[in-house]
Design goal:
Mean pLDDT: 88
Number of strands: 8
Distance between the termini: 16 Å
Oligomer: single chain
Shape: elongated
Largest sheet: 6 strands, antiparallel
Number of helices: 10
């Protein structure tokens, strides 16, 4: 197309660099110079300069043997800064607020944290808070409750078994599953169903439904609707599953944020 990346001004160059960064996903882990040029319609020189510039600032790293470029440490730094600064919570709250209003119950979003999931955002419904203390910051173990099961059930089974097999599981209530084989069956059932339900497995005073939040095919967290067992509702909690699944998809789409890149490439 053009012979130099600055031929049409710096804004075009910036836009192209952003297109490259947004093109990485679970199926596209690296780029070579020529295939990037073919994909985006650049010439070879433009492709090389863009990749080299991003690598020089740490947004990409170059393998000296294959000469292919993958995401670099600057991306991790910016992602971590965004989450610590509340960016992830603010993004999730836009979806959680609508879900809490529609269901009348507390809605929460959790992300993986080792062998747990950690609540990063929560919005209360009309019935009020689930607990006297905020949910944000709470950790939920992999083996207890719908909130964590909705994430771990959708991991690759081999990855999940390597993480959980042989670990000692604490019993939080009489309903907590602590047997390896039984837990594996429960996770498999959750995967087939597409969402999870629990009542008193982790906190005996609450019940919850939860669904995975995915970016593409990769689970990145879970979204839950939670109610205290002492409250009386006009409808059953499981009647909220369609709203839950819709919210999970909307949040996944927000986190993917591929629309601009997809339009440019099409």
């Amino acid at each position: 197309m053009d012979e130099a990346i600055d031929a049409r001004g710096p804004l075009q160059t910036v836009d192209r660099a952003l297109q490259i960064l947004l093109s990485f996903d679970e199926t596209r882990r690296d780029w070579g110079v020529l295939e990037l040029a073919e994909e985006f319609g650049f010439n070879r020189s433009t492709s090389q300069r863009l990749l080299a510039a991003l690598a020089a600032r740490g947004f990409l790293i170059s393998d000296p043997y294959s000469r292919r470029y993958s995401l670099g440490p600057a991306m991790w730094h910016m992602a971590a800064l965004w989450e610590r600064g509340g960016g992830l919570a603010r993004l999730a709250e836009t979806v959680l607020a609508r879900l809490a209003e529609s269901t009348g119950r507390t809605a929460s979003f959790t992300v993986p944290d080792g062998y747990h999931v950690r609540c990063v955002a929560a919005v209360d419904g009309d019935s009020g808070p689930v607990r006297s203390h905020p949910l944000v910051g709470d950790l939920y173990p992999a083996h207890a409750g719908a909130t964590s099961r909705a994430y771990f059930a959708f991991l690759d089974p081999l990855v999940r078994r390597n993480m959980l097999s042989g670990r000692p599981f604490a019993r939080y209530t009489e309903l907590t599953e602590v047997d390896d084989a039984a837990l594996e069956r429960l996770l498999d059932d959750t995967y087939r169903q597409g969402w999870a339900y629990s009542e008193g497995e982790f906190d005996q005073t609450t019940r919850a439904i939860a669904a995975p939040v995915r970016v593409g095919a990769t689970p990145v967290g879970s979204i839950s609707v939670i109610e205290p067992k002492v409250f009386t509702y006009e409808d059953d909690l499981t009647a909220q599953v369609p709203l839950l699944l819709d919210a999970a998809q909307r949040l996944g789409n927000l986190l993917a944020n591929r629309s601009a890149a997809a339009r440019s490439r099409s």
